[in-house]
Amino acid sequence: MLILSIETSCDETAAAVTRDGRTVLSSSVYSQIATHAEYGGVVPEIASRRHVEKLCAVADSAVAQAGVAKSELDAVAVTAAPGLIGALLTGLSFAKGAALALDVPLIPVHHIKGHIAANYIAFPELTPPFLAVVISGGNTLFCDVRDYDDVRVLGGTRDDAAGEAFDKTARVLGYPYPGGRELDELARTAPAGVPSIPLPRPAFPDAPLDCSFSGLKTAVVNLVHTAAQKGEPVDAPVLARSICEAVTDVLTARAGIALDLTGYGKLALAGGVAANSFVRDGMRAMAAARGAALFVPPPSLCGDNAAMIGCAGYYAFLAGVRASAGQNAYATMSPEERF
Ligand code: KG4
Known about the structure:
Elements: E1 2-7, E2 12-19, E3 23-31, H1 33-37, H2 44-66, E4 75-81, H3 85-102, E5 106-110, H4 111-122, E6 130-135, E7 140-147, E8 150-156, H5 162-172, H6 180-187, H7 214-230, H8 236-262, E9 266-270, H9 277-289, E10 293-295, H10 299-302, H11 307-318
Parallel strand pairs: 1-4, 4-5, 6-9, 9-10
Antiparallel strand pairs: 1-2, 2-3, 6-7, 7-8
The structure holds 5'-O-[(R)-(carboxyoxy)(hydroxy)phosphoryl]adenosine (KG4).
Residues 10, 136-138, 163, 166-167, 178-181, 184, 271-273, 275-276, 303-304 line the site of 5'-O-[(R)-(carboxyoxy)(hydroxy)phosphoryl]adenosine.
């Protein structure tokens, strides 16, 4: 089954063609990062307008690179939630038009299920059930993946996402948006002999799988501003390493609890923050200590892309999910909900 998939939930305009879910024939991603970097974060209205400008060319290039005729496409899959509402609507409207013109079904896809599905593309042997840790710029979720189209949320952030914490602390250290990757690289240059700076790692005894990153963000901002007011220097590499360690400790502790709770022997990471080297190392050690297998997709599949939407769309299609002409987009929606 050939699926044309569209992803426009945030600041990547992406299209892909996949065969039977797991085989990627093409994947085109136009990143708007340079546009938004000027403002220090994503400007929703600008993101929507840029999607409108780029979508046709990105989708055309995905079909051309796949080497298939448009008439061979069997379905169109599109991210319909969650994300920036205007951005989502551009992709959904485009996908509706494409499905109508091609006379094929339209499949609405949940963005988080897409991130999880990136693992199916990267690891052909991976099958549910397993634990998925979805860590991106907008989401931090610990998910029980019971089946391809059956995801239960075990816990997650109560405020900022892990990626948001990385990006905002990177900004205060002088890096342009998004900043997570630069912070990771800077952290790696910190001398091993210098102790890390204590940073908050809040826990919720009543909800051990929940986490919070807003306190970490505030602590780092205050630390940098106080040092500036006193005219004292900040050891940026050590601070960057301390941030990475704090985020990693919080994420790996929850993932460990979730593995124990579910009894699963498989842990899959997903989302842009899965590219963080401290998070990868921490998860690897935690999984190894429990004898669990760790799956981490390559960076190209961790960030937003449409191939993962095509894969999730395939499994949603098999589960009977279809969009009607009146399909709406939703800024917030749990992956437990169905379209
Ligand atoms: O999944 P993604 O592309 O977009 C969302 O759906 O949000 O994730 C982007 C996030 C950004 O916050 C970015 O800074 C972060 O992933 N990121 C990293 C690293 N690479 C990307 N954060 C920390 N360390 C990295 N190496």
